[in-house]
């Protein structure tokens, strides 16, 4: 289903992603993070839905459909290293920084900072080209808003 999308994303010189494809790629990262600890909880699904709905102005049905597509894409996407590097090359910094904020929301959604989630965050932020300072600031902002 996503073969052409992934092929374009993983090309040697990927073009900037159209908004629809960026939604899929960035949403798939949220799903990957939520699944990192092997316990994909309803609270994480609800948080992903809230993030996608708010970020893209989607109805409930559109949000559910997008998350479902993101879940499918996440299972088909290559390893996190290649996937995040490809996103880095095709998504603007401001959008990648916003994704890090959303990822921190997912990490903190269940009230626990799991070792697998922390490890994935430490790996993904630099691969997306987001500085440690911006990632830490995002975590602090999310923690303060909880």
What does this structure look like?
It comes from Yoonia ponticola. Residues 23-139 form the Co-chaperone DjlA N-terminal domain. It is a single chain. The chain is globular. The chain has eight helices and no strands. The mean pLDDT is 85. The protein has one domain (18-145): Orthogonal Bundle (TerB-like), CATH 1.10.3680.10. 76% of the residues lie in helices and 0% in strands. The protein has helices spanning 3-9, 19-35, 42-56, 60-76, 80-90, 93-109, 115-127, 132-145. The relative contact order is 0.17. Helix 2 runs antiparallel to helix 5 (80-90). It is mostly helical and 146 residues long.
Write down the secondary-structure element order: HHHHHHHH
**CATH level 1 class label:** Mainly Alpha
Q: Give the radius of gyration.
A: 14 Å
- What is the CATH topology assignment? TerB-like
Number of strands: 0
The level of helicity is over 70%
Described by its quaternary structure, the protein is: single chain
Residue-averaged pLDDT? 85
Distance between the termini: 36 Å
Number of domains: 1
